[in-house]
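Bumping with the actual sequence this time:
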Amino acid sequence: MDTCPSVAATEYSFFMYDFARHTWDDTKKSMTAKPCRMHPDHGFAIDQTVRASWAKDNLRAKPKVIKWTKEYAFDRYSSDPRMPFEIERFHFNRWAENDTEGKFLHAVTLTVGTKVTVRSKADPKLCTTIHRFQCALVPAAFGAYELVNEDRGACTVVQMRWKKG
């Protein structure tokens, strides 16, 4: 479960060792016989019973609703303090509003829905459209902006932004 190297606690790795350990040799009375065979099914079963609840309680990010309006909901996921960025989501049918506060770069990705326009509130000519699974970087200087659903149905935009601006 490792996506890329990072010192920011952005992913978790679980390893099973035992396959390289030598087995008991009755003749030599030592652990010098052929190496153990790996038993991944047994390892996963043990890992599941020992770590599953701890990982769920201590590692799994949990969403917290930050803002709820008639038009949209905005939530933020819990994270390890060493992680330098926040993961946030906007859920809406028609539109949602956001603000870089002049200090946060936003990376917004449309994960549910087909097409959303990211439009500046101060200058609506400044805009871009993203399709499902596309990402747009909204510069810190952009300020207040809106996310507008250009199709029917629900939309979810996932946003990554630095914790400190």
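The tokens above came from a reply further down the thread. The chain is about 10% helix and 35% strand.
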